[in-house]
Amino acid sequence: MKASGYDMSRTLRICYYNNDQTSIDLINAVVYYLEQIGLKVEATLSNDGTTDLFTTREYDMGFKGKSAFTINEWYTEYMSGDALFSKVFGGDTAFDSSVAALLAATDDGARKTALASLQKLEQDNIYKVPMFTVGTYVFTSNHVKVPSGVTFCNPLYMCDLDFANWELA
């Protein structure tokens, strides 16, 4: 941090709005580890996360949840026209063409190329850093017949659930 020229006397401000114990514990751990490397850190629990994260913006880092059911949803948040993130990223258009390519991809090669481009943009800009993923559960009733060979997986990754061949009894 010092080698990068970061002002170690400056207080790093973190804003978060989830008040569940897991989020509080995570933020406390992040604060602790940042303090261990010599940073001054202030974490604030917001009572109005949407306003504070996307409008007030009195923080250096914001902690928020994302309920993305596909990798496409994760990336559409970066688009310059996204209602919330344009306020945070300032309407940055760098991701637009790669997100559009991902959404238009019809084969694995095009999808892989779009994802590689998006991954590079994420690494270059570091707008979001995933901290953890909450487990996903799939519930089906005995009135649904799932085709044999379907393997459920993390929905953020590409897997074929063969929905077209599910049957309702």
Topology:
Elements: E1 11-16, H1 21-36, E2 40-45, H2 49-56, E3 61-63, H3 71-76, H4 85-89, H5 96-104, H6 108-125, E4 144-145, E5 167-168
Parallel strand pairs: 1-2, 1-3
Antiparallel strand pairs: 4-5
Helix pairs in contact: 5-6
Would you give an account of this structure?
- The chain is α/β, with parallel strands linked by helices and about 170 residues long.
- It contains 6 helices and 5 strands, in the order E-H-E-H-E-H-H-H-H-E-E.
- It has helices spanning about 20-35, 50-55, 70-75, 85-90, 95-105, 110-125; strands at about 10-15, 40-45, 60-65, 145, 165-169.
- The strands form 2 sheets. The chain has a 3-stranded parallel β-sheet with strand order 2-1-3, sandwiched between helices. Strands 4-5 form a two-stranded antiparallel ribbon.
- Helix 1 (about 20-35) links the parallel strand 1 (about 10-15) and strand 2 (about 40-45).
- Helix 5 packs antiparallel against helix 6 (about 110-125).
- The radius of gyration is 20 Å and the shape is globular.
- It starts with 10 loop residues before the first strand and ends with a strand.
- About 10% of the residues are buried.
- The mean pLDDT is about 85.
Question: Can you describe this structure in just a few lines?
Answer:
The chain is α/β, with parallel strands linked by helices and 169 residues long. It has helices spanning 21-36, 49-56, 71-76, 85-89, 96-104, 108-125; strands spanning 11-16, 40-45, 61-63, 144-145, 167-168.
| Biggest sheet character | 3 strands, parallel
Number of strands: 5
Structural class: alpha/beta
Instruction: Tell me what portion of residues adopts beta-strand conformation.
Output: 5-15%
Radius of gyration, in Å, reads 20 Å
Strand order of the largest sheet: 2-1-3
